[in-house]
Amino acid sequence: MTTRRFSTQSADENAASTAVSSPVEYESVRGTHDRLGRELREYEFIVNTARRIAVDQFGYDPIETPVLQYKHVFHRSLGLDSDVVSKQIFHCHHAMADATQEPSTDSKQVILRPENTASVLRAYLEHLRQQPLPARLFYHGPMFRFERPQQGRLREVRFASIRIESR
Q1: Rounded distance between C-alpha atoms, residue 41 and residue 22, angstroms
Q2: How far is residue 140's CA from residue 46's CA, in Å, rounded to a whole number?
Q3: Which domains does the chain have, with CATH numbers?
Q4: Model's pTM, two decimal places?
């Protein structure tokens, strides 16, 4: 993969400022992937086909949950000792907090969701628990794992899934 360097300066200005600073490099974060053109159309075709089958043909209800979730949601579903919770979570260091708020407690730590099952269950309990069962849900979206990217493994992955909730 080549890294492209961009500069808004003229050649003379660029030569004069090279000793001071170098141009910004534009590249995706390691372990993430840009989808463009044909690849994006193919990806959207797969997701739309899955949605059409699950929602239109089998009557699943679509559900979408935020990428940002509280960490304790995953403690309860995956366990404190799981590799996902102990090693692979992207923590958001309170960029969203109001300066007047108290420091984040463990129950209020915000993370990028590492998987979507716990998020969907949280949304079900928060919004849908009064609806008749079984609840048939279709969801898809990005998940994030903080692990060293290796061949064929990415930090940002996308899943589509169905879930049936019953008592």
Answers
A1: 36
A2: 11
A3: 35-165 (3.30.930.10)
A4: 0.69
For 111, counting Cβ atoms within 10 Å of its Cβ (0-12 exposed, 13-18 middle, 19+ buried), the class is buried
Q: Which amino acid is residue 34, in one-letter code? A: D
Q: Which amino acid is at 3?
A: T
CA–CA dist 77, 121 (Å, integer) = 9
From the list 135, 158, 160, the residue with the least C-alpha distance to 34 is 158
pLDDT tens digits, 78-113: 555 655 555 677 777 655 555 555 555 555 788 898
Q: What tokens does 33 get?
A: 């992937």
Residue type, 108: K
Q: Select from 149, 158, 134, 128 the least CA-distant residue to 67.
A: 158
Beta 90-92 vs 110-112: how paired, if at all? antiparallel
Residues 147, 153: contact at Cβ < 8 Å?
Answer: yes
Bridge partners (DSSP) of residue 92 are 110
